Amino acid sequence: MPEHVQEVIWLTQEAYDKLQSELDQLSGPGRAEVTARIAAAREEGDLRENGGYHAAREEQGKQEARIRQLADMLRRAEVGESPTDVDTVAPGVQVTVAFFGDESDTDTFVLGSRELLGLDEAVDSTNVYSPQSPLGAAILGKRKGDSASYDAPNGKAIEVTIVAVEPFKS
What are the residues facing 93 on neighbouring strands? Predict the structure, then answer.
């Protein structure tokens, strides 16, 4: 897929609200706070040796990058519930795969991201794999019964068979 094509991001209403709240905080009070810290550090004198100034500027850069990321995600967001009739692996669905065709060696996970699905890592133990991960990319668009392979970090090819594709219920 060409880089300029923007994919729709599926979000629950809870996840959308959480991301919108974070964006509002960062682009409002958060931005003002960092700007004030930069101004205070600037008044301390020589900026070449001012650690507080450089730290505040670095924090500002990270914050602005996060603001751009959140704004992009929210602009591409499609809010709603996970599809109820799924037969193809796509972000927001729960997938069970069997490794090397062995149905006693399976893994069940949701394709997406914790942040976008509104999952709290501290209280939810759902396995989540990114669509950009080697496994996620290999199975994207596949159906129950299809096989795919991907390269593990050690270079070994791993084969998986899609055992189940179901709606994700948080």
Answer: 167
